[in-house]
Amino acid sequence: MLTARLSRPLSKLPGKTLSFPNRENGTRYTLQFYPASFVPVGHRTYADAVNPVGSKAVLVTGCDSGFGFSLAKHLHSKGFLVFAGCLMKDKGDVGVKELDSLKSDRLRTVQLNVCKSEEVEKVVEIVRTSLEDPEKGMWGLVNNAGISTFGEVEFTSMETYKEVAEVNLWGTVRVTKSFLPLIRRAKGRVINISSMLGRMANPARSPYCITKFGMEAFSDCLRYEMHPLGVKVCVVEPGNFIAATSLYSPERIQAIADKMWNELPEVVRKDYGKKYFDEKTATMHTYCNSGSTDTSPVIDAVTHALTAAKPYTRYHPMDYYWWLRMQIMTHLPGAISDRIYIH
Ligand SMILES: NC(=O)c1ccc[n+]([C@@H]2O[C@H](COP(=O)([O-])OP(=O)(O)OC[C@H]3O[C@@H](n4cnc5c(N)ncnc54)[C@H](OP(=O)(O)O)[C@@H]3O)[C@@H](O)[C@H]2O)c1
């Protein structure tokens, strides 16, 4: 077990043998690495998935598009009873229509704005009454709903900070608290979709980073508390998949930029100037098509977290550049990592 845990990050080193003693019983552990162990981080081969799926019930939030949409379909194909929380179900969004078109009684879309307590409580009731035996609880909750924005601290209004936190952070806390009684009964799983930006910050992303760092702290506290109760709490930290999801679109970026500029205090507008502001907006536009277009590393990570007997605490579906950057930024002194990546 310890060997496997250690070998995961170290498996990036080809052709090496490491040996170390166990001081308690005198035996030696040996770790052997081969070039063949080089697998892209996002496509890491996972340990056996051992928990039979049956039709365990899972709620995924934010299924109108992106990861949530793909997850709802994938988990359904794996045999789960999927409740797909959709922000726009009542408005008949295209994603909802596609999920409904599967016409399966194991895939049910439900209206769910994670910021609205009354909608969350309604979904708890829908799930509870759909379960064969509510006393046995439900298996999984995937907190996926999220929004993003951009802008330097001085460009970001307090309203924006609160708006992003309301969905990403308080939405996650709200939904989790409401579903824990059911999850506890099943000794089930809570999977939180954080981000690599929940581990390392980035300039011009403070409203998003704050919420994802908060989500990480919430997940850790919950994991400690739930451990004795048999509930497992996992965090998935995707890298850059912007091109594959609806997190950013050119229209959305422009709308955010226009609103931001219009609402800027005069002193900030004057000090930074429109040229600087427009350059930053243009940089954000270039991100729209950046990142991986293949969401399967994220989908695989969530599936593993829901099905493996011993899921990982954290999953890192991201390419090597971001994986290495995250290791350096989280393990080396700030003075070094700032120099490498920020300044
Ligand atoms: N894409 C990436 O590169 C990336 C990287 C790291 C982490 N993530 C995280 O992955 C998660 C999924 O995002 P995504 O990339 O798949 O983007 P996405 O396509 O925009 O999906 C986010 C979903 O959340 C929904 N949503 C927004 N506000 C909501 C609310 N108040 N209540 C319920 N649902 C709400 C959105 O609905 P509408 O479409 O109707 O607005 C959308 O369906 C997010 O938590 C995001 O932070 C994404």
Care to describe what's here?
This protein is of the alpha/beta class and 343 residues long. It has one domain (57-340): Rossmann fold (3-Layer(aba) Sandwich). Helices cover 47% and strands 12% of the residues. It is built from 12 helices and 9 strands. Strand 1 (17-21) and strand 2 form a beta hairpin.
Looking at the structure, what is the overall shape? globular
Which hetero ligands occur in this complex? Answer: NADP nicotinamide-adenine-dinucleotide phosphate
Strand percent estimate: 5-15%
Strand arrangement across the biggest beta sheet: 5-4-3-6-7-8-9
* Broad CATH class: Alpha Beta
Which CATH-level-2 architecture? 3-Layer(aba) Sandwich
- Gyration radius, in Å: 21 Å
Q: Percentage of helical residues?
A: 40-55%
What structural category do the secondary elements indicate? alpha/beta
Distance between the termini: 40 Å
Mean pLDDT: 89
- Catalogue the unreliable spans: 1-18, 31-42
The CATH H-level homologous superfamily = NAD(P)-binding Rossmann-like Domain
Largest sheet: 7 strands, parallel
DSSP helical segment count: 12
What is the CATH topology descriptor? Answer: Rossmann fold
Number of domains: 1
GO cellular component, one term: mitochondrial matrix
Protein name: D-beta-hydroxybutyrate dehydrogenase, mitochondrial
GO molecular function: 3-hydroxybutyrate dehydrogenase activity
Keywords: Allosteric enzyme, Lipid metabolism, Membrane, Mitochondrion, Mitochondrion inner membrane, NAD, Oxidoreductase, Transit peptide
